[in-house]
Design brief:
- The chain is an alpha+beta fold.
- The chain folds into five domains: 8-96, GIY-YIG endonuclease (3-Layer(aba) Sandwich); 107-208, no CATH class; 260-368, Alpha-Beta Plaits, CATH 3.30.70; 383-540, Nucleotidyltransferase, domain 5 (2-Layer Sandwich), CATH 3.30.420.340; 552-601, 5' to 3' exonuclease, C-terminal subdomain (DNA polymerase, domain 1, Orthogonal Bundle).
- 46% of the residues lie in helices and 19% in strands.
- It contains 20 helices and 21 strands.
- The strands form four sheets. Strands 13, 14, 15, 16, 17, 18, 19, 20 and 21 form a nine-stranded mixed sheet that branches.
- Helix 12 (343-370) crosses helix 13.
Length: 602
Amino acid sequence: MLTENSSEHIQSIIKSLPETPGVYQYYDKENTLLYVGKAKNLKKRVSSYFNKEHLSARLRILVKKINDIKTIKVNTELDALLLENNLIKNLKPRYNVMLRDDKTYPWIAIKKERFPRLFYTRQSKRNDLEYYGPYASVQIMHALLDLIYQLFPLRNCTYDLSDTNIKKKKFRACLEFHIGKCKAPCEDKQSVEEYDDNIKQIRQIIKGDFQFAVRDMKKQMNLFSEKMQFEEAELLKRKVDLLERYQSKSTIVHPSITDTDVFAIVSEEKASYVSYFKVMNGTIIQAQTIELKKHLEESDEEMLVFAMNEIRLRFNSQSKEILLPFEPEFIFPDVKYVVPKIGDKKNLLDLCFRNAKEHKREREKQIALTDPERHTARIMQQMMKDLRMKEEPRRIEGFDNSNIQGEFAVSAMPVFIDGKPAKKEYRHFNIKTVVGPDDFATMEEVILRRYTRVLEEKLPIPQLIVIDGGKGQLSAAINSLEKLGLMGKVTIIGIAKRLEEIYFPGDSIPLYLDKRSETLKVIQQIRDEAHRFGITHHRSKRSRETFKSELSEIKGISEITAQKLLTEFKSVKQIKETPLEELTKAIGPAKAKLVWEFFRKN
């Protein structure tokens, strides 16, 4: 059933849509393209936008703006994916997933000519070049090129080495020939067949198929040995050793894993990061991570399929096997999905996943430096999601108790605003009603006192309260909030120190957050601040009380006088060392004489 706010025009379009694969386009009143999407079933997919209430505000806004729908029917779901990809790149609709890619990656190119040249380029548009790549790391690409130049003598001149020009002896061998880096095909010192055979081996090495090149070189080496051409055989042996050493350094899994694509995804509220490995003979020969900006409620599956299509097109991948963290519904023709659970393939997928997470962390660090407001908003959104909150925890108050066998009991309350300490807002509490070491009763008193004052003085109510302790301390705090009618209006959690369990009201099973989770880091920081601030106040109070008790042993010296002396001279030791004249200035001659004589006798 379509919602009432969808126009008759939209309803009539949806009713007439076919149940076939295709691409749909949404337009607003000004005929501006808003969104492009693909569908396995156009009718079901398009109608889903209008027959339910969406959680995402951005998606609700999009649906309200839709004034017209245009569709393109295609034969298969793959055709729909390819068409969607091209339309998004060319038309850049406002509400679509956008690929954040501000780099021009390098490629290795082979010129389509007689005696082909090999070089790297950042342009991938020319028809006269064979392209291999792109390479996310320039260092890896140069290392591969250096290996090829060590293995094969290649020309780097731009001469037109046609058969006619060579026969006319138009060219002379250059320095590259004399230092052994080129065999001078310009002077007909190297045949086209020999040169092309080298290029054939180079193509295999670039593709990661070292075994083909090694096998071919060993075959030639044996032929040279049989003909007693030992210098040539020794040269080939060195090349084989060089190739095998290079491969052993880059092999990270079993060599049987060959011609395989690996994808892993890490997502947050507004972006997804997809990492890609191309594996040949157990070697990662290409790697890249891309960032996709979300605009609507895109799932991990949608983001992963979009990225897989984009990357496989970019790298011209024809791999028949793809390793994935989960199996998407979308099927690429003639491709086998593998979701590994153990073994080398699982290790490879885990490595790809760590690569995506590391890219995400690096991106977050950049945002924290260049756009702190966006960084804060992202953390607040993540905390709200992780802690099952209805609003962002912009203000957080934490509580921790300190005492020694019930003596000098205090409680500390740090305050975090937008995920950062607001030290001017910190408060500490001297316990008034609890006798003895009763941590639960202490927590109940402190929470009651704090939020009674908050309500009476109309102070800001926090979105989140963090209790340092497990279920017992949390229950005590809840008792006070219930008395004040605040339960349900503020989120409260407890954090237990041993395993960093997060406890929620009424739930006996704790939440375990990832140890590297930003939500857990903020909660831990609040807990640690509460502990630090509480211990500092506890020591100060214990020290003052101890000093007071020592001064109170002096007959004729009241608690008020003792406090006055401590305020003036800071410590009992300093009071002991103070001359009588200065004591007299502070508390008068009679009391000063009592203090001075007491410490002289003792």
